[in-house]
UniProtKB/TrEMBL annotation:
Membrane-spanning residues: 21-45, 57-74, 113-135, 141-163, 175-194, 230-252
Protein name, per record: Transport permease protein
Protein source organism: Geodermatophilus obscurus
Membrane topology: Multi-pass membrane protein
Main location: membrane
């Protein structure tokens, strides 16, 4: 998607607004995953390591941390693409005001995705620092988990934006969280290998962007990444991003341009 000067201007407007609530957003985007990491990785992880452990002989903290990094990116991107998008269309009419300038609907989408990319990248970078302080990485390739988290976030943000742009009311967002985001968080490899799941759920996990992001980030953090598998994971995430962006552009054009 081309990024015009109008898209950059809208992105800057979102950054200006973000300055007023960055502290509260940091709590949800960084502190909550860190608490999960401490609670699950250091306490439950001790029990797991005393037992059969994680396949491959890695410690549970090292297994969990990159998964939480990517899962947090999913949650941040989804959160920025549900209520804020519908609100900007229907309640405060921010997008309508932007379109009163020479900006187009596609510029609104590009600016929104730039802002989501900023939110995901900064939150993931902060979490990555904590991950390193915890000693939860076994390879310097873990730094590449940051672009993986970004791509995973966009793979969720784009289709969720398309959904939000097509809605009249916000009730569907609760269903999205309850029936898609939370199950993916729990069953897409963040906390345990998906091959422990029943076959139907394992196939579900393989189809999700989160599993591909989590698996690639974990392979990088553990130093076990394979070039062919990495390309497959990146391709899957890029496909979700591209398809979602196309749908979102179409939905916003229909909704905003009368």
């Amino acid at each position: 998607m081309p990024v015009s000067s109008a898209a950059v201007s809208f992105f800057r407007q979102r950054l200006t607004a973000h300055r007023h609530f960055w502290r509260s957003s940091a709590v949800g985007s960084v502190l909550e995953p860190v608490l999960f990491l401490a609670a699950m990785g250091l306490t439950l992880g001790t029990l797991v390591d005393r037992g059969p452990g994680v396949p491959g002989g890695v410690g549970y903290l090292a297994f969990l941390a990159p998964g939480l990094l990517v899962a947090a990116a999913m949650q941040t991107a989804t959160g920025e693409s549900t209520y804020p998008v519908l609100g900007a269309i229907k309640w405060d009419r921010l997008y309508e005001a932007v379109l009163a300038t020479p900006a187009r609907a596609v510029d609104v989408l590009a600016g929104h995705l730039l802002y989501v990319a900023f939110r995901v990248t900064t939150s993931a970078a902060a979490f990555l620092v904590v991950l390193l302080l915890f000693g939860a990485a076994e390879s310097p390739l873990v730094v590449l988990a940051l672009p993986v988290a970004l791509l995973t976030g966009l793979a969720f943000a784009a289709p969720v934006t398309a959904m939000a742009a097509a809605l009249e009311e916000d009730a569907a967002f609760a269903a999205l969280q309850r029936f898609l985001i939370v199950p993916m968080f729990l069953f897409s490899g963040t906390f345990f290998p998906v091959d422990r799941l029943p076959a139907v759920l394992e196939w579900f996990a393989w189809a999700t962007p989160l599993w591909h992001g989590v698996t690639l980030a974990r392979d990088l953090a553990l130093g076990t990444v394979d070039g062919g598998s990495a390309l497959l994971h990146v391709g899957h995430l890029a496909l979700w991003t591209a398809a979602g962006t196309a749908l979102a552009a179409r939905a916003l054009q229909r909704r905003l341009v009368r």
